[in-house]
Amino acid sequence: MKKNVEPVYYGEYLQLDKLLSAQKPESIKYGPEAHDETLFIIVHQVYELWFKQVLHELSSVIDVFAQESVNDSALTQVVHRLNRIVTIQKLLNDQIGVMETMTPQDFLAFRDYLVPASGFQSIQFKMLEMGLGLKSQFRIDFDKQSFFNRLNDEDRQFLQEFEQKQSLFELVDKWLARMPFLEFEDFKFWQLYQTATNEMLQSDHDIITNNATLSDDEKRIELDSLEQTRASFSSLFDDNIYSKLQQQDQVRLSRQAMLSALFIKQYSEEPIFNLAHQFIECLTSIDENLTIWRYRHAMMVQRMLGSKIGTGGSSGHEYLKRTTESNRIFKDFFNMATFLLPKSALPKLPESVSQRLGFYLTH
Amino acid sequence: MKKNVEPVYYGEYLQLDKLLSAQKPESIKYGPEAHDETLFIIVHQVYELWFKQVLHELSSVIDVFAQESVNDSALTQVVHRLNRIVTIQKLLNDQIGVMETMTPQDFLAFRDYLVPASGFQSIQFKMLEMGLGLKSQFRIDFDKQSFFNRLNDEDRQFLQEFEQKQSLFELVDKWLARMPFLEFEDFKFWQLYQTATNEMLQSDHDIITNNATLSDDEKRIELDSLEQTRASFSSLFDDNIYSKLQQQDQVRLSRQAMLSALFIKQYSEEPIFNLAHQFIECLTSIDENLTIWRYRHAMMVQRMLGSKIGTGGSSGHEYLKRTTESNRIFKDFFNMATFLLPKSALPKLPESVSQRLGFYLTH
Amino acid sequence: MKKNVEPVYYGEYLQLDKLLSAQKPESIKYGPEAHDETLFIIVHQVYELWFKQVLHELSSVIDVFAQESVNDSALTQVVHRLNRIVTIQKLLNDQIGVMETMTPQDFLAFRDYLVPASGFQSIQFKMLEMGLGLKSQFRIDFDKQSFFNRLNDEDRQFLQEFEQKQSLFELVDKWLARMPFLEFEDFKFWQLYQTATNEMLQSDHDIITNNATLSDDEKRIELDSLEQTRASFSSLFDDNIYSKLQQQDQVRLSRQAMLSALFIKQYSEEPIFNLAHQFIECLTSIDENLTIWRYRHAMMVQRMLGSKIGTGGSSGHEYLKRTTESNRIFKDFFNMATFLLPKSALPKLPESVSQRLGFYLTH
Amino acid sequence: MKKNVEPVYYGEYLQLDKLLSAQKPESIKYGPEAHDETLFIIVHQVYELWFKQVLHELSSVIDVFAQESVNDSALTQVVHRLNRIVTIQKLLNDQIGVMETMTPQDFLAFRDYLVPASGFQSIQFKMLEMGLGLKSQFRIDFDKQSFFNRLNDEDRQFLQEFEQKQSLFELVDKWLARMPFLEFEDFKFWQLYQTATNEMLQSDHDIITNNATLSDDEKRIELDSLEQTRASFSSLFDDNIYSKLQQQDQVRLSRQAMLSALFIKQYSEEPIFNLAHQFIECLTSIDENLTIWRYRHAMMVQRMLGSKIGTGGSSGHEYLKRTTESNRIFKDFFNMATFLLPKSALPKLPESVSQRLGFYLTH
């Protein structure tokens, strides 16, 4: 084999001629070059290269879940690749610190020449959001409008088609919903579960009422939120209530998927669930890092522009802050702790159940 | 001198007997030890040790600004120490990742034994917030109430006295307000400044209206926010308007201080302002890192508890998220970019002015 | 249960009275307090707290491997806890940046008062090194001597006893050596393996000789190192050669353990090996981070002291640099890539083999 | 002005068509694509983009020091830009963690197709090393040879010309040497300095001999190294001895430059030296981060290849480790602490001196 390998040269392999000739400051067109415009360009180009890598991993993961079944071997690889995305995201978040070495005035020296370009026009970032599961329907109004407006026809069309594809969120929802968690005739998990949760809620109720350090107002607030918790618990077992919560975008997963994920988290230390649990944790971390990135990015923009409008003609940071929370994709995994019981309160998993699940997860 | 030095032993110098015997899990009292409770204890103890260090630096900085005047030499040291705080904060933020290695269920195994203890009871963290300038009046209602309620009498009394002291924010405000920036008879900076800003706002107006990618709605939104920007500009030169904004907590600095800070940022590259500018940047970074910490902390709590109530009897993360923004202390520095002009639009600083300022800053 | 829980107060739970009263600068005894001595104390105290946490995890892992057998469920937990250690180590490494905010002169202001205290006297750090597997026999001479000299009798005695216990390295070596990897009558893995390696070495030989960019000297150097590689390969299958390498401390694992680890790494994507492989990777990362810590620490000491002697009376950084490499514990895992074959060259794992290994790993 | 600005589109501004079409895995040519080759390509491309940014800052700094004189205003900007390089370097070091998510076997799947490409062929990295001051004469033999061999004619010629330019090290050496530190008739700094150092060395001598915890061997070792320290001190004041040390590459700065740097570090808290000191610290940090990068990179290569040869036909990590220390550029700044006195031992700086230096530094 080695005989036929053509010799490779570092610079050609990496196509450095294209890569390193792709920084053309606009400021040069209108006067002396603004020194920091190169930083501005390269920071964004590095982001785009990382986005390409993240999309490379994401699409390979989506391909796996597009299959009829996902076996252990595939899941091992999926977890490995999602962990890589998490590692890359840490860099993306720290990279904001590099942009922050640019002062507002250094930015003002070329900002006006970039109108109306805007980070909202990053196709890859939108592919990332969509691929994970943030489709238009989940976006806040302002975002929904501006989402496609700012793009040229080619990009808009491309993204509109891309949005038709199944997202990782949708595929994971189906994968979880397919799990046979609710059919164990003799193992009455969910009854036991409901009994245990009622005890837990009662004890939380006692904690609040017996807490001398809380004012009456505070107690009322806490008891109200406790009632909401009780309500969301009951929703888990009532299709009608649950679908109402879905319509209010309080939950996104299907009820079946929610229960499966809950089951996996409850028994995460069972070897049989080890990979499935790692997988859920990865998705949560990816969402968390994306949220941290949005938040730090919004603050950086505020520090750079105050309430000045951005190059895209929108006063960036206010808008960006609004999306930080609303664009959370796997928020159900974040809130799942609400429904978790202490190990001590868990019914032991019967061998028969492990076996059925084992079969599902490994074949 | 060296003759009389008593020999020192590592473990005694660091008082490791006290330090390493101070981890007593509550879970042991009620059953088998919860393995992860030690992590929970040590993570919080490390935070408290760093808080002590940060307070050590902060109080030395406060002492400097409590003086009649702050010379270059003192300011050099202040900047060095604030940069140390920033370095420590990066650790504090990353440390959340260590806590996140604890699963919700590992936490549930001992959470109930910690009632009603709560991070709200960290005296040092409140000293840090107060020392920087976050006094009760700036806190949101819920926070205002719970602020002292949860503490025992001794701690409450201590903090109430501590709150009487001048905060760094108050001292910096006075220091800035003292600067003789508005008295330069012949140098008409602020007139020139107003002319320049009007041009800038006009061009922003054009950017928006000429932006084909914006819908009419979006344009309206942007033009409104531009009007707000115009309003805040004019407020800089009208005591009545400005004090209204202060009452609405839109700005916290006094008008004089705001103008001085603005002047320093405008001319930050003048060597004479180098240290003063570094100082302002440090304060902004400290505030930014504190905000990031609050945000990541809130998300970690959500991941750990969902909407379960915390040990202190309050559903943590919702509340914590509310404070993330509202507890910003030096937010005026964050928004200052709103008022900055490009260097090209700046009037050259006359020698006479540099000299007066130089005298103020170095003596 | 909740009824009987005694209320807990944050400050008492964390024993902050002890913790925050444990910083007593020596400089005060001899003159005005050296401001930065507090930083010096707290940085070291934080290190000791983290060391306690790491030892808490490490000893729980050692307990698992002290058992007759290690099942999947236990291994899941072990990997989780080792990953926590890795997360903590990242903090420990970044924390050096905090110490580096102290200038050499700030340190000189109190260094002389700390004589002859020294970081070499950290019992917990030595417990960590010993617990992982760095016992005296593996230390370089200077280190071997100073190892116990600097300690007081109590500490010395404690560590000498501690060193008698089995280290994680020793336990892991036995656990790997126990694996039934060499007994598969019909599955001739190691023969196939040797054939494949010979091909690989031959092709490496061609790569070197055909490389026009290498000078003859360089080629000679590379071909020599290739011969060494060939030698180490053959050592894997010859007890005499292998034990020679062990005596020269070129390898530390037993031959059986080495072969098992190699097998696991070769087939790491087989679900059955997933956990075992994660476990090996964790140990490698822990060793890597410890090495990075030693290296950065040595450089920090150089920046602080140059070639001045440290408080312990030894010129720190030269010595520290010498230990950086020699104190690597799981270096065999680092070098294992030497022996790995591309997946394409691997014989497919027969079902019967997976089953036997599966049985070993899960029961 | 704004009137004439041509509208800019995000993707065109960043030339994403070129950037995102520049990843062509070699593995495709010979069989199925190796999934991780894209990671390998993008990680290296991101490095090259950052290198371009670092070179952008570095060359602007070199331009400043190529001038007759460097005033405060220029130095302010230089420090700002060097700090940016330090911030970027932290990313470059953490980025190694991304590469480490690739397993040795994932790498083996395409390694053979990249022969004989090698990171040694990165022109920008060599420009960075040369620009800072690491010219061929300072490289170890192996490196000296391979330095140009591996390059094609065009690149070799380019670098050979580039190497003729003055490096930052050379320019900084001259800048420091020009400082009028040794001509203060009445201010006998260097005499006072020598008296003080003798006292310090004597007290170090006592510390060692009085240290009960040291064995006689250890004491001898320490006393020898103390003698070396004494020798290096005296070298500062003897041209012949000093130039011997230079020939042995024990020191790189000229004696005049060394003394100036020492003076600045001694009086770093004098406002007049604030910027010059920050500048020296930046250069030290850049060198430190470069060293950490080399060290982590070497360890990553070991983990990936063991003692297998790299694609360039050289067994990477052994060689890389050898360069980690030898390629330090500003090592004199690292060792400078050797020569520092405690503030208490420093003669007060006379006003006349500050003024002369002030004049030199600000004009």
From TrEMBL, chains A, B, C, D:
Keyword line: Dioxygenase, Heme, Iron, Metal-binding, Oxidoreductase, Tryptophan catabolism
Name of this chain's protein: Tryptophan 2,3-dioxygenase
Pfam families named in the record: Trp_dioxygenase
Record EC number: 1.13.11.11
HAMAP family, alphabetized: T23O (MF_01972)
Keyword field contains Heme: yes
Lineage: Bacteria, Pseudomonadati, Pseudomonadota, Gammaproteobacteria, Alteromonadales
Positions annotated to bind substrate: 40-44, 111, 311
Cofactor: heme
Binding site residues for heme: 297
Pathways per UniProt: Amino-acid degradation; L-tryptophan degradation via kynurenine pathway; L-kynurenine from L-tryptophan: step 1/2
